[in-house]
Amino acid sequence: MSVRHGLLALLSRGLRYGYQLRAEFEASTATTWPLNIGQVYTTLSRLERDGLVSRDDQGGQDGQDEQGRVRYAITSEGRDELDRWFAKPVSRADRPRDELVIKLAMAVTTPGVDVAAVIRAQRSATMRSLQELTRALRTLDASTEAAQRLVVDSMIFHAEAEQRWLDHCEAVLARPSEENP
Amino acid sequence: MTETRPPDRLPAPDAEPVVRMTGVVRVHGEGTGAVHALRGVSLDVPAGELVAVMGPSGSGKSTLLNLAGGLDRPTEGSVVLEGRELRDLSQRRLAELRRRSAGYVFQDLNLIPSLTVAENVALPRELDGVRTAKARAEATAVLEEVGLADLGDRFPDDLSGGQRQRAAIARALVGRRRLLLADEPTGALDTRGGDEIIQVLRQRADAGAAVLLVTHEPRYAAWADRVVFLKDGQVADSSAAGMETAR
Ligand SMILES: Nc1ncnc2c1ncn2[C@@H]1O[C@H](COP(=O)(O)OP(=O)(O)OP(=O)(O)O)[C@@H](O)[C@H]1O
Ligand SMILES: [Mg+2]
């Protein structure tokens, strides 16, 4: 993903300054995806280069207003790109590799590593974040935007799946010693 | 998301837990057929805390719950419920303490089909010797707490699964029992029904009860202040929310 597409989506609602984009991006991801302002401007200049956004032409030199700030607008190419992004499912292969999966695979095949201890430590840590996420969700009040709730929900489901997978790993690894003693 | 637990929820450090289990061993049967269901478990459940117990099938979760509530006696070790060492109590005294202090929710809810929901919920209080009118008033209050205020006059068979489960919880809550024990109370419920149950348990803990919950579901365990993982009758690890130092 795509900070790129996130910014395009925000710009599709209207003209925005860079700092506004940053604030709105963080708000809609329930501040679970912090973005620094440098990332925002780097991304905007790439989008501009690719013709997907443009500087607001109401401004003066280079689209700057009196305070030297620039407002950005989505172009019609940008809208097409955004439509394509929403229409196309995210491929699992596009997602970043999960370090935990690699770590466990390595732990299993590396001599002298106590795999059970790795699993236990991870399970406690994952449960702790699940507890924290649940508390965060509980304390969101009714006025919280649906987008934010859904982001926290997603992380809860993810942590839950990881927890189940760890239980599964533990069960699978416990088995061979019984089958071939 | 790194907030710590609000101070009003922390039990005073020297407050006596509602249940304290120390070095508890439970062996079923004898000789070669002996099953070591618990092999030396120590666990405190203080007032105001929701503790979840997880672990594979057969790891000793139900055994732990039964021992904590005085429904079963340990082979070795000590269980202290509201300051009373259970080993020292006669059967009669134990039954009395159990009834007064602990509320149980089991998966097979044990609601009596020929009694209305309100009568089912009032029953434990009538057994406590409370007058019928007062028991009924208490039942009404607790039914309201679990969101069944309007369904007290129905019979258990005329409720949905989730409502039945909440009625069973109401029965466990009535009379302000300080210890609440729940073995897979979210059983076969869907996410929504399960969430309702877990919220009621959470509220009770927040109101000062000690709650011990057995569950297979990480999403429900996550409502707990502490999650204890059992494996082969021992505590494998535990995680406390918002506190780096698990007890
Ligand atoms: N009355 C009994 N007699 C003999 N063995 C028993 C008895 N009760 C329990 N056990 C054994 O003790 C062990 C722990 O049982 P327990 O019911 O506590 O497991 P559990 O963790 O609750 O499992 P589950 O998730 O399947 O409910 C199991 O091996 C079980 O077979
Ligand atoms: Mg059980």
From TrEMBL, chain A:
<dbReference type="InterPro" id="IPR036390">
    <property type="entry name" value="WH_DNA-bd_sf"/>
</dbReference>
<dbReference type="InterPro" id="IPR005149">
    <property type="entry name" value="Tscrpt_reg_PadR_N"/>
</dbReference>
<dbReference type="Pfam" id="PF03551">
    <property type="entry name" value="PadR"/>
</dbReference>
<feature type="domain" description="Transcription regulator PadR C-terminal">
    <location>
        <begin position="97"/>
        <end position="173"/>
    </location>
</feature>
<dbReference type="InterPro" id="IPR036388">
    <property type="entry name" value="WH-like_DNA-bd_sf"/>
</dbReference>
<dbReference type="GO" id="GO:0003677">
    <property type="term" value="F:DNA binding"/>
</dbReference>
<feature type="domain" description="Transcription regulator PadR N-terminal">
    <location>
        <begin position="7"/>
        <end position="83"/>
    </location>
</feature>
<dbReference type="Pfam" id="PF10400">
    <property type="entry name" value="Vir_act_alpha_C"/>
</dbReference>
<keyword id="KW-0238">DNA-binding</keyword>
<dbReference type="InterPro" id="IPR018309">
    <property type="entry name" value="Tscrpt_reg_PadR_C"/>
</dbReference>
<protein>
    <submittedName>
        <fullName>DNA-binding transcriptional regulator, PadR family</fullName>
    </submittedName>
</protein>
From TrEMBL, chain B:
<dbReference type="GO" id="GO:0016887">
    <property type="term" value="F:ATP hydrolysis activity"/>
</dbReference>
<feature type="domain" description="ABC transporter">
    <location>
        <begin position="19"/>
        <end position="245"/>
    </location>
</feature>
<dbReference type="InterPro" id="IPR003593">
    <property type="entry name" value="AAA+_ATPase"/>
</dbReference>
<dbReference type="InterPro" id="IPR017871">
    <property type="entry name" value="ABC_transporter-like_CS"/>
</dbReference>
<dbReference type="Pfam" id="PF00005">
    <property type="entry name" value="ABC_tran"/>
</dbReference>
<dbReference type="GO" id="GO:0022857">
    <property type="term" value="F:transmembrane transporter activity"/>
</dbReference>
<keyword id="KW-0067">ATP-binding</keyword>
<dbReference type="InterPro" id="IPR003439">
    <property type="entry name" value="ABC_transporter-like_ATP-bd"/>
</dbReference>
<protein>
    <submittedName>
        <fullName>Putative ABC transport system ATP-binding protein</fullName>
    </submittedName>
</protein>
<dbReference type="GO" id="GO:0098796">
    <property type="term" value="C:membrane protein complex"/>
</dbReference>
<keyword id="KW-0813">Transport</keyword>
<dbReference type="InterPro" id="IPR027417">
    <property type="entry name" value="P-loop_NTPase"/>
</dbReference>
<dbReference type="InterPro" id="IPR015854">
    <property type="entry name" value="ABC_transpr_LolD-like"/>
</dbReference>
<dbReference type="GO" id="GO:0005886">
    <property type="term" value="C:plasma membrane"/>
</dbReference>
<dbReference type="InterPro" id="IPR017911">
    <property type="entry name" value="MacB-like_ATP-bd"/>
</dbReference>
<keyword id="KW-0547">Nucleotide-binding</keyword>
<dbReference type="GO" id="GO:0005524">
    <property type="term" value="F:ATP binding"/>
</dbReference>
